[in-house]
Amino acid sequence: MQKTMKTENVLAFVTELDLKKTFECGQCFRWSADESGVYHGVVCGKALAIREENGLILCDAEDTDIPFWRDYFDLGVDYVEMSGPFIEPPYLEMCANFGRGIRILRQDPWEALISFIISQCNNIPRIKKIISTLCACFGEELPCGLFTFPSAYKLAALDETALAPLRCGYRAEYILCAARAVVSGELNFDKLSQFSSEDAFAEVRRLRGIGDKVANCFMLYGLHRMDRFPIDVWMKRALERYFPKNFDPKILGLYAGLAQQYIFYYARTNERSDNLECS
Fold it and tell me: Distance (Å, rounded) from C-alpha 232 to C-alpha 229?
């Protein structure tokens, strides 16, 4: 059923934020467009309907929540300036131009961690289905009919049998281990945000079931560490085909993660196969 929007506020210009590119570039899994092109999602318990019209990005957020959403979409950062150095090799420049309008979302660290644990050896449609089921089973229903992301405390009290409806296989163990690490204080997101990028990465890697790809995704999308460069099967293919041998993403500097997102979005859009796994 099509959802209607409340009184709308202007959040940004379309030159700053491309909704389709941002929501469908593989960094998030809980934004969906209805038949009229309005995207609906929930972040930190706040529901939002957002759409594009006449060069503007309009949303149904209250005035007091506009700063929250501008921060979530990272609208205080000049992405044109950040991506200026992405000119070599020519393939990277092409990807950057194609992906213009993507923003790296400032996602909730807990949700990002669990989302990318679910993403391992998985494809995007199935990831979205598992996460949707997780939220419907263990989240709180909002008046709009959407669900919050379940808390670490809620999941930590469960066993693998309770997660059977998700049909997430071996990932169930890793989800519960992560939840218990957060509840026990073994994993503290506030402390991680103060660590150096390498130290935070090493700390996350200690968790059961988290390899380099998941840890880097969490760092980029959950902690907004823009220097991280997650490599999955899409990225491996692009790097092998279009970049010099032994290419080191570190040469892309502090915004390597943005370059990664441009490359991933271009590769997945132009060589699309929804059955190709994300790791």
Answer: 10
**Rounded to whole angstroms, how far apart are CA atoms 50 and 70?**
12
Could you say which of 35, 59, 76 is where a domain stops?
76
For residue 219, which amino acid is it? M
Tell me: the pLDDT tens digits for 15-48?
999 999 999 999 999 999 999 999 999 999 999 9
The structure's pTM equals 0.93
Would 25 be classed as within a structural domain?
Answer: yes
- Measure Cα distances from 219 to 57, 174, 188, 225 in Å: 27, 17, 13, 5
Which residues form the domain of 49?
9-76
How far apart CA 223 and CA 147 sit, in angstroms, is 23
Picking from 170, 128, 135, 167, the residue whose alpha carbon sits closest to that of residue 154 is 135
Report the C-alpha gap between 120 and 117 in whole angstroms. Answer: 6
Residues 137 and 67 in one domain: no
